[in-house]
Amino acid sequence: MIEFEQVTKVYPDGTEAVKKVTFKVEKGETCILLGPSGCGKTTLMKMVNRLIPITSGKILIEGVDNTKLNEVELRRGMGYAIQDIGLFPHITVAENVVTVPNLLGWPKAKKRQRAAELVELVGMDPVEVMDKYPAELSGGQCQRIGVARCLGADPPILLMDEPFGAIDPITRERLQDEFLKIQSKIKKTIVFVTHDINEAIKIGDKIALLKEGELVQYDTPAALLSKPKNDFVAAFVGADRALKGLRLTKVEEVMRTSPPMVKVDEDLAVVNRRMEEAGTKWLMVVGDDRKFLGWVGKSYLEKSDRLKDIIIPPAATATRSTILSDALSLMLSSVIGNLAIVDDNGLLEGELVFDDLYKALRRINVE
Amino acid sequence: MWVDMWLFINNNWGQIGVWVLEHLQIILVANGIACILGVVVGIYITGKGREGIADIVLYFASIMLTVPSLALYGILMGILSALNLTSIGFLPVVIALILYGLLPIIRNTYTGIREVDPAMIEAGRGMGMTEWQLLTKVKLPLAVPVIMAGLRQAVVMNIGIAAIGSYIGAGGLGQPIFRGIANYRPDLILSGAIFVSLMAIVIDLLLGKLEQLTTPRGIRIRR
Fold this sequence. Notes:
The structure holds two protein chains of two kinds. Chain A is α/β, with parallel strands linked by helices. Chain A has two domains: 2-245, Rossmann fold, CATH 3.40.50; 251-366, CBS-domain (Roll). Chain A is 35% helix and 23% strand. Chain A has 15 helices and 16 strands. Chain A has a six-stranded mixed beta sheet, with helices on both faces. By secondary structure, chain B is an all-alpha fold. Chain B has a single domain, classed as MetI-like (MetI-like fold). The termini of chain B are far apart. Chain A binds chain B through residues 49, 51, 72-77, 80, 82, 84-92, 99-100, 103, 133-136, 149-150, 152, 159, and chain B through 117, 119-130, 133, 137-138, 141-142, 216-219, 221-223.
C-alpha cells in the first residue's frame, strides 16, 4: 500500500509541480497517474522512490514514511521502468533483467534462472534472447525486457513511467494486453504514469487525474467516465465516452455461453437444419472436446459432403477477458461478423454477437 | 643518403635497440601516469555541481598543449632544480609528457561520461544503484571507447614530443636526430625519424586493438 499525504513539490525556481496531493493506492492495485504533460504526474511518481525529494507532506510505503528508509534500499525494493527503457547496451538481456538481483548479490545460478523466468513471463523465448544484447532486439522487445527488468527481484511495488510510450500503437495494445495478463498473475501494487486516457482506462484499477499539480479526481475508470467531477475531467476523458466505455466491459459480460454449434463429424443435413433453427448463416464447428475448429457457412454446404472439408479456420478469436473495444475491431476485420470466444486451450466458451455488443454500447450510453 | 642511413642502421642495431627501449620507457611511464591521473580527474569533474571546475580544468589542460615542448622542458628544469631534484634527463621529460597527455585523456573521459544516455543513468539510479555502482557498472563501461580513443591520441602525440626530450639528456630516439643535426649527418636524422614514426604507427595499431578489446561487445553491435 502506498499512501500520499499532502504531498507537495516546489522546485528551487518556485514552480509548484505537485500541490497537496492526498490519496491511497491499495495493495495489488494498478493506480494510473493521468494528466496532460506538466501536470506533475511524473514528479509525483519519482517522489515515491525519492528520485525527486519531497518538499512537504509524506509518502507512506506499507505504513512507513519513505524518507525514513535508506534511499538505495528503498529503490531496490520497488521495480522501476521508464519510457526511454534505459536498457544497458553493454550487458546482455539476461544481465539487464537481473540488474537488481545483481545489486542484491544473488548467487549466479539463481540470477540466471530468474532471468529465464522473467523473459518467459513477458512472452519471449529465454533460449533465444537471454544472451543477446539490447541492440539486437526490436523496440517492442526492448520494452518487454524493460518490464521484465523492473520485476527483477520480485518487488511488491512497481513504478512505471509510460513504459509503453515509445512504440507503435499495435505493439502497444499487445503489450498492454500482456501487462494485464501478467498483473492478474503477479498482483503487484503499481503506480503507472501515462497521458493516454485509453491506456489509463484499459489497465487502471484506479485513476488519479492531475491538473497543474493538483489531484482533480481519484476514482475507478468507470466512475471517471460516468461521473466526471467537473468540466476538466469530462473534457479530458473525452467526448467519445461511450466508445471508451467499451474498454471497461469484458467479453464475458455480454457473450452468449451456449451458442449454436455443430460437431465436426455431424451430417451436413443436420448442419443445415441447425442453421435454419438458429436463423444464422454461420455456425461454429467444434471437435469432441469442444475444441474450436472454425466456422461453416451456409453457402459452402453444397461444396462437399463432409463437414470437415468445408470448415473455415478462424481468423480471429477472443477470450473471456478481452475488452469489448478490442473484440469489436476483431469482429469488424472478419467476414463472419461474430466472434468465437475460446479459453487458453482453444476450447469454445461462447460466442459474441454484434447485436449484444450494440446493446452493451447503448447501455453504457444510458448510464 | 638512404644508403648511408641503411648502413648506419645495419651497423648499429644494438644502439638503436637501446634508444627504442629508452623511448618506450619514457612513453609507458608518462602515459601510464597520465592515464590514471586523467581518468580520475575526468571522472571527478563530471560530478554534480562541478561544471565550473570542469571548465577551468579543461581550459588549463588545453593551454598546456600550446606551450612549446622545449620551453616546457626549460621551465620544468628550473622548477626541479629549485626543488633540488634531478633537473635533466628522464624526470623532466616524463613530467612534461604527463602534462601534455592529460588533455586528451581528461577531455575524453569527461565527454565519454557526459554523453552516456541520461535514460540509462536514471534507470540505474531508479533501480537502486549507488553513485559508485552507477559509475563502475554503467558510466565507465559505456565511456570506455571514448576514453581509449583519448589515451591513444595522447600516446601517439607523446611519442613525437619524447624525441625532443633527448635534447635535455633523456635518451631515446631523439639522440640520433640531435646528433645528426649537430654533425650534419642526414642519415642519423633519418634513422631516428623513421624509428619514431614506426613506433608511433605500431603503438597506434596496438592501442586500436586494445580499444576494440575493451569495448563491451554489446555496444560494438550496430543496428
